[in-house]
Automatic annotation (TrEMBL):
InterPro entries: DUF4295. Pfam families: DUF4295. This is DUF4295 domain-containing protein.
Length: 51
Protein backbone atom coordinates (compact mmCIF):
# COMPACT_ATOMS: atom_id res chain seq x y z
CA UNK A 1 0.00 0.00 0.00
CA UNK A 2 2.13 2.83 -1.21
CA UNK A 3 1.52 5.86 -3.31
CA UNK A 4 4.09 7.73 -5.37
CA UNK A 5 3.56 11.40 -6.10
CA UNK A 6 6.09 13.13 -8.30
CA UNK A 7 7.12 16.51 -6.94
CA UNK A 8 8.30 19.35 -9.13
CA UNK A 9 11.27 20.44 -7.01
CA UNK A 10 14.00 20.55 -9.59
CA UNK A 11 16.01 23.00 -11.60
CA UNK A 12 17.02 22.32 -15.16
CA UNK A 13 19.84 19.77 -15.13
CA UNK A 14 19.17 18.95 -11.48
CA UNK A 15 18.00 15.84 -9.67
CA UNK A 16 14.36 14.73 -9.86
CA UNK A 17 12.61 14.05 -6.56
CA UNK A 18 9.55 12.01 -5.65
CA UNK A 19 7.35 12.17 -2.59
CA UNK A 20 6.72 8.63 -1.30
CA UNK A 21 3.79 7.97 1.05
CA UNK A 22 3.71 4.55 2.74
CA UNK A 23 0.96 3.08 4.93
CA UNK A 24 2.62 1.47 7.95
CA UNK A 25 0.68 -0.81 10.27
CA UNK A 26 1.29 -0.57 14.03
CA UNK A 27 2.15 -3.96 15.57
CA UNK A 28 0.46 -3.10 18.89
CA UNK A 29 -2.88 -1.61 17.82
CA UNK A 30 -3.13 -2.66 14.18
CA UNK A 31 -3.90 0.92 13.14
CA UNK A 32 -2.32 2.37 10.00
CA UNK A 33 -0.16 5.47 9.99
CA UNK A 34 1.33 7.20 6.98
CA UNK A 35 5.03 7.86 6.54
CA UNK A 36 6.08 10.49 3.99
CA UNK A 37 9.57 10.83 2.50
CA UNK A 38 11.16 12.93 -0.22
CA UNK A 39 13.67 10.80 -2.15
CA UNK A 40 15.37 10.92 -5.52
CA UNK A 41 13.53 9.11 -8.31
CA UNK A 42 16.17 6.39 -8.56
CA UNK A 43 15.68 5.50 -4.86
CA UNK A 44 11.85 5.11 -4.96
CA UNK A 45 11.80 1.37 -5.55
CA UNK A 46 14.29 0.66 -2.73
CA UNK A 47 12.33 2.83 -0.28
CA UNK A 48 9.03 1.07 -1.08
CA UNK A 49 10.52 -2.42 -0.69
CA UNK A 50 12.38 -1.50 2.52
CA UNK A 51 11.08 -3.43 5.53
Amino acid sequence: MAKKVVATLKKEGGVKYAKVIKAVRSPKTGAYTFKEEMVTEDMVKSVLTDK
